[in-house]
Specification:
Helix content: 40-55%
Mean pLDDT: 85
Shape: globular
Oligomer: single chain
Strand content: 5-15%
C-alpha cells in the first residue's frame, strides 16, 4: 500500500476481514482506521458501527472501489468520518487520513456526485445544512477532497443524518 511512503502516517496493522478489524481496533487503538469498503465477512457499515460502539471517539475512514450512494450513506450513517475511493493519490489519501484524525469529514468527487444525485432524486438535499451541502457540492465538482469551503467538522446535522439514513435504506 502506498501509505508506507508517507512520513505523516504510521501503519499500525492490516487485516483481511471485518472480524480481524474489530479485534485489531481494540488491541492497537489507532488514531484513524482506514477500512476497505467491502469486507468478506460483514458489511462495512456493520464493522464501522461495531468499532464505534466500543469507543465513539474512534475515527473510521472508508476506502472503497465504488461510489454507490447507498453504500456511502450506510457507512456515513454508521459513523464513518468519510468515504474516499481508491482512485485518489497517496498524497490525497494521506490528507484525508490527517483530516479524519481531526474529526473532519472527507469525501472525494465520485461518491460526492453520486450521493448528491441520490439526495436530489429523493428530494432530501434541503435537509442538509448550508455547510454540508456546500462541502458535498465542492467535492463533487473537483477531483480532490481538500477543495471544500473550509472543513466540515463532525457530527453531521440532524437533517444530514436523516437524509443519509433515507438513502441508506
Amino acid at each position: 500500500m502506498y501509505l508506507g511512503l508517507s512520513n505523516c502516517v504510521l501503519i499500525a496493522g492490516e487485516t483481511d476481514c471485518g472480524a480481524q478489524s474489530l479485534a485489531m481496533a481494540d488491541a492497537l487503538l489507532p488514531d484513524v482506521i482506514l477500512m476497505d469498503g467491502f469486507l468478506p465477512d460483514m458489511t462495512c457499515a456493520s464493522a464501522v458501527h461495531s468499532i464505534l460502539a466500543v469507543n465513539r471517539a474512534r475515527k473510521v475512514l472508508v476506502f472503497g472501489t465504488v461510489s454507490d450512494p447507498r453504500l456511502v450513506a450506510q457507512v456515513l450513517s454508521a459513523g464513518a468520518v468519510g468515504y474516499v475511493t481508491k482512485r485518489m493519490s497517496g498524497e490525497a489519501l494521506t490528507d484525508a487520513i490527517m483530516a479524519a484524525s481531526h474529526n473532519e469529514f472527507r469525501i472525494d468527487q465520485y461518491p460526492a456526485e453520486d450521493l448528491l444525485c441520490e439526495l436530489d432524486r429523493l428530494s432530501l438535499s434541503d435537509r442538509l445544512s448550508a455547510q454540508e451541502l456546500a462541502v458535498l457540492r465542492s467535492a463533487a465538482r473537483s477531483r480532490t477532497v481538500t477543495d471544500a469551503p473550509g472543513p466540515l467538522k463532525l457530527p453531521f446535522s440532524p437533517g444530514m443524518r436523516k437524509a443519509l439514513e433515507a438513502v441508506a435504506a
